[in-house]
Amino acid sequence: MLKGKSALVTGSTSGIGLAYARAFAAQGADVMINGLGDAAQIEAARQAIETDFGVRALYSAADMTQPDQIEAMVREAESTLGKVDILVNNAGIQHVSPIDEFPIDKWNAIIAINLSSAFHTMRAVLPGMKARRWGRIINTASAHALVASPYKSAYVAAKHGIAGLTKTAALEVAQLGITVNAICPGYVWTPLVERQVPDTAKARGISEEAVKRDVLLAAQPTKEFVTVEEVAALAVFLASDGARSMTGTLLPVDGGWTAA
Ligand code: NAD
């Protein structure tokens, strides 16, 4: 379905981003992955995409807090893959703290990585997409783009910000064959979430099952985690020609969280 297309996915060395990259590759797209982490593990993930799906997979180590590195990443993707047809802004971090104790450096990093990086990538890819009159921009927002939770001020502000950026960009390019949408996952079972479970169980003196049920899934009516494959399946649809009239949308994949 995506043969001949190329996709750039930020924050795709693990979790949801890696699932997006693999799902696009499974449809025949060449991909550039990006993110932090252990070099050997990243190289293994990159190679696995090539061997599993027979596409080209490249890796950029660009830091999403650095606008010059973001610009260079997009130019590298354009020169090595020929073009960027699909851009997914997915890199993200979290910090949980009351506002009056929130570290300023954490606020700045979350706004830079979870919000501003998407402005910088879009700014760099849009001229090419406009010239070709085809493009798909998919932003990983969150249920926290639609509702708030206490102690997540920077994350909720950044995710509400990405919702506004999504709608604004969609309007600007609506007549140019380019769509811009945001996926809003609830709790997704990623290594990031998995790692929190034993520590939270210890801190609260409850079982790991109780952490999942009473802490993490308290807001999610299905009482099940969303999977990375379910999030990626929506991204594949948004990248398809079938979704050409969907733009400026904020699409929950949250087990009913934001319906409550
Ligand atoms: P993850 O930690 O597995 O993935 C985050 C990715 O971002 C990693 O590849 C990491 O290396 C990358 N990254 C972090 N800082 C970076 C930087 N400075 N420069 C470049 N890359 C950087 O987490 P995930 O759960 O897969 O999260 C992916 C996205 O999904 C995030 O935007 C997150 O806010 C969003 N999201 C996650 C959940 C969830 O429950 N897991 C729910 C809603 C939204």
Folded structure, characterized:
It is a single chain. The protein is α/β, with parallel strands linked by helices. It has one domain (about 5-185, about 225-250): Rossmann fold (3-Layer(aba) Sandwich). The chain is about 50% helix and about 15% strand. A seven-stranded parallel β-sheet has the order 3-2-1-4-5-6-7, sandwiched between helices. Helix 5 links the parallel strand 5 and strand 6 (about 180-185). About 45% of the residues are buried. The mean pLDDT is about 95. The structure holds nicotinamide-adenine-dinucleotide.
Structural descriptors:
260 residues, alpha/beta, Rossmann fold, 13% strand, globular, binds nicotinamide-adenine-dinucleotide
For the residues shown, what is the average pLDDT? Answer: 96
The helix tally amounts to 8
Q: Give the overall form.
A: globular
Query: Can you write the helix and strand succession as a string?
Result: EHEHEHEHEHEHHHE
Strand sequence of the main sheet, in spatial order?
3-2-1-4-5-6-7
**Could you name the CATH class?**
Alpha Beta
- Low-confidence segments, given as residue ranges, are none
- How many domains comprise the coordinates? 1
Strand content: 5-15%
The count of strands amounts to: 7
CATH topology: Rossmann fold
Give the termini distance in whole angstroms.
Answer: 36 Å
Radius of gyration, rounded? 18 Å
Bound molecules: nicotinamide-adenine-dinucleotide
- CATH homologous superfamily placement: NAD(P)-binding Rossmann-like Domain
Largest sheet: 7 strands, parallel
CATH architecture: 3-Layer(aba) Sandwich
SS-derived structural category: alpha/beta
Q: What share of residues is helical?
A: 40-55%
